[in-house]
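Let us practice reading a record.
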Amino acid sequence: MTVRADLVAGLLPVRGDGRVLLLLRPSGTWDPPAGRLACGERFEEGAVRELYEEAGLLVRPQRILATWVGEDARGGRLAAVTYVGRTGGGEVRLSEEHLDYRWATPEEWLELPSWWSPEDRGRLRGVLRRLPPEAPPPPPPPGRDGRGVARANLGAGAVLVDLRGEEPRALLLRRRKPPAGLWENPGGMLEEGEDFVGCARRETLEETGVEAEPEAAWWARVEPWRGPDDPELYAGVGFVARHPGGEVRIEASAHDACRWVTEEEWRLLPTWYTARESDVLWRTVRELA
């Protein structure tokens, strides 16, 4: 049985001085702008819309800060992806959903009451170091009105990378099942009680025999689950995990070969990923290296 959840996207704007925008909820917590995805939205689109609706700012998502799977106040399951992005300025126009706003340093946020865990807030400083110094051009104003709520079956995976040589290499596994012959990274569907990180960790161990910790989230996708006409949705998050060493033992029922590849070799093989997604992956690998 797959794990399903309402999807949530957030976007944390970052000023040139390194301060981030936090909004005060009626519950008394200081958190990034965020809300449920509308039907038909991608995570990035929902994040841009929610920020625009709640604070009047247009900011382009640049990196994934954190992912989360849990329950809302009424016991419904949520699955969230939150981005960060530099802003070139603009006036904050607070919506009626929030009581106040402030620009805070990462250290100040750790001292404030927040719905976010200290662990997730503690990732912010490291992610900010990976951001380019200049703000990219802002996205256009969102065209959707945010109607409906996107609900999806949840999955996750990890690209296992070896950073010890002169050139980073990533592990690819060749599928036995249709589409047979496609090269992919370890991944699968969430099990009850897991979040995205836990699923990626388990799938990596099951499919490679390697215990590796998912680090940077580089990819998040919402799409029809079993085919382009499927009304059910799939929402997946991809991580990068460092290979700690040791032999790779592939799960023979799922894959019939494995190979370590450079970026150039990766791009020559058939995978699930678009050229743009491969750009983001290898940028993330280089940042970790």
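A brief commentary: The first strand starts at residue 4 and ends at 14.
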